[in-house]
Amino acid sequence: MRHMRNILSALVALQLVVMPLCAQRTNADTADGLLAALSEKIAAMGDYRVEFSVEAEGNDMNGNYIVSGSNFRIVTPEFEVVSNGKARYEINKELEEVIVDEADTTEISILINPTKAFEFAKSGFVASYGGIVDELGKTCDLVVLVPGGVVSSITEVKLYLDKATGLPVSLDYKMDGFEDKISVKVLSFAQDKSLRPADFRFDKSKYPGYEVIDFR
After folding, report:
1. What is the distance between the alpha carbons of residues 159 and 134, in angstroms, rounded to a whole number?
2. Are β-strands 154-162 and 79-83 bridged in parallel, bridged antiparallel, or unpaired?
3. Which residue, among 30, 37, 53, has the nearest Cα to 182 in the 3D structure?
4. Cα–Cα dist 202/91, whole Å
5. What is the mean pLDDT of the chain?
6. Cα distance from N-terminal residue to C-terminal residue, the chain
7. Domains in the chain and their CATH numbers?
8. Which of 89, 135, 175, 181 is the most buried (most CB within 10 A)?
9. Residues 23-76: tens digit of each pLDDT
């Protein structure tokens, strides 16, 4: 009888260890499944347009970006960024200058490389499921991401996905050098079949008087 009690006690102890591990695995599987579904939705769109707003260190800014493969264009009142997947042109409207550099295809920040803004798993980030929450008046799944052995200025991302559509509602970034989080609200996210290659070319004639600084 004592031997049987010892076996039962061991089984109970083992179950107490295994149950949290299973919960953690289920948690990660849920987050990974949501991210995989999001990637599929975006890939199915092909070309798309996103309207957004950003809040960072007490400042607000609205803008939009368009994406076609590795090409993108970001437009805000203060700056524009155009990339053909090889070169990146950052146009500062206040300073009237254009900074040209190699495109960073590994960056996942929505304001630096929106083509990879939601490819966290491919970028070495580890996802966990934060549960069902309300965000901007919508019922959302929360996915929390942190770097998993990858060097990044981003230390944490909270991604809110609309349960009805699976598309992003907002993102909160924690980044090195910023005391407060950077919040990005996704106002619309839709396919755009009107995009053309010319949308992703830098046309110097449209910026007369601007100084062009090429770091390539």
Report:
1. 12
2. unpaired
3. 53
4. 10
5. 85
6. 78
7. 2-214 (2.50.20.10)
8. 89
9. 444 565 799 999 999 999 999 999 999 999 999 878 889 999 999 999 999 999
pLDDT of residue 28: 57
The answer to whether 103 touches 82, Cβ cutoff 8 Å, is no
Tokens 């109970």 map to which residue? 12
CA distance 25 to 7: 27
**Cβ atoms of 130 and 158 closer than 8 Å:** yes
The secondary structure of 66-131 as a DSSP string is: EEETTEEEEE-SSEEEEE-SSEEEEEETTTTEEEEEE--TT---TTT-GGGTT-TGGGTEEEEEEE
What are the phi and psi torsion angles at 140 (to 5°)?
A: -130, 155
Q: With CA atoms as reference, report the closest residue to 122 among 22, 43, 24, 21.
A: 43
Comparing C-alpha atoms, which of 16, 118, 101 is closest to residue 65? 118
Distance from C-alpha of 141 to C-alpha of 149, rounded to nearest angstrom: 25
Backbone phi, psi, residue 204, to 5° = -60, -30
Residues in the chain: 216
